[in-house]
Amino acid sequence: MVIGNGLTTLLWEDRWINGQSVCELLPNLYDCIPKRRRTARTMADGLNGNSWARDIHGNLGLHEIGQYLQLSQVMQHTELSAAPDQLIWKWTASGTYSAQSSYLATFHGSTTCYSWKLI
Question: Per its UniProt entry, which superkingdom is the organism in (predicted)?
């Protein structure tokens, strides 16, 4: 995900931090976010008055505070532009979706068994 104006990028769910999501990078902090906020907070909303920090609830331990500080640094260096957000398709070099790349992605990591050749 490439952030533009931040209106469609979900702060807690989308992979906007070097191709990873907050859930993947900062799992302890992510667990402190209510489920309803995870799918509602956009980057534009979150950067407005640092409202992303108000999404964090519950008791924070050392791990959560450390992850909060990490995210705080990332958020301070994140700037929005007038361009719309862009979704990057990771299964092609160009980043654009194709039906062929989607089909091939379904087999990514699978192994081929030629057991019919043994007969």
Answer: Eukaryota
